[in-house]
């Protein structure tokens, strides 16, 4: 085990900087917390499993505007209510064995 000795003032400064960073993170997350608490959001994998579709079919739904999504940190999220509405309407496209879609 390695022991490092630093001055108490340096430790206090680091502690204060970490607290400030934590507060900045909480402030940045604050505007998203209410959005995610208001409704259940699902990612690509959860949608594909729920709808029993491939990632390519999911991309087609997005490209055709059939399923809206929001992007957060380069990851797509979908409202559960939008997915349920699409399921209730029936799958607009079916995926062939080769991965292409029929209209």
UniProtKB/TrEMBL annotation:
<feature type="coiled-coil region">
    <location>
        <begin position="4"/>
        <end position="31"/>
    </location>
</feature>
<dbReference type="InterPro" id="IPR041657">
    <property type="entry name" value="HTH_17"/>
</dbReference>
<keyword id="KW-0175">Coiled coil</keyword>
<protein>
    <submittedName>
        <fullName>Helix-turn-helix domain-containing protein</fullName>
    </submittedName>
</protein>
<dbReference type="Pfam" id="PF12728">
    <property type="entry name" value="HTH_17"/>
</dbReference>
<feature type="domain" description="Helix-turn-helix">
    <location>
        <begin position="41"/>
        <end position="89"/>
    </location>
</feature>
<dbReference type="InterPro" id="IPR009061">
    <property type="entry name" value="DNA-bd_dom_put_sf"/>
</dbReference>
């Amino acid at each position: 085990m390695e022991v490092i000795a630093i001055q108490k003032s340096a430790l206090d400064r680091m502690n204060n900087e970490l607290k400030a960073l934590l507060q900045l993170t909480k402030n940045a997350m604050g505007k998203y917390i209410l959005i995610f608490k208001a409704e259940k959001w699902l990612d690509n994998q959860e949608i594909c499993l729920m709808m029993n579709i491939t990632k390519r079919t999911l991309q087609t739904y997005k490209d055709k505007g059939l399923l809206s999504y929001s992007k957060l940190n380069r990851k797509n999220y979908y409202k559960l209510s939008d997915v349920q509405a699409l399921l209730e309407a029936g799958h607009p496209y079916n995926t062939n064995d080769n991965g292409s879609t029929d209209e």
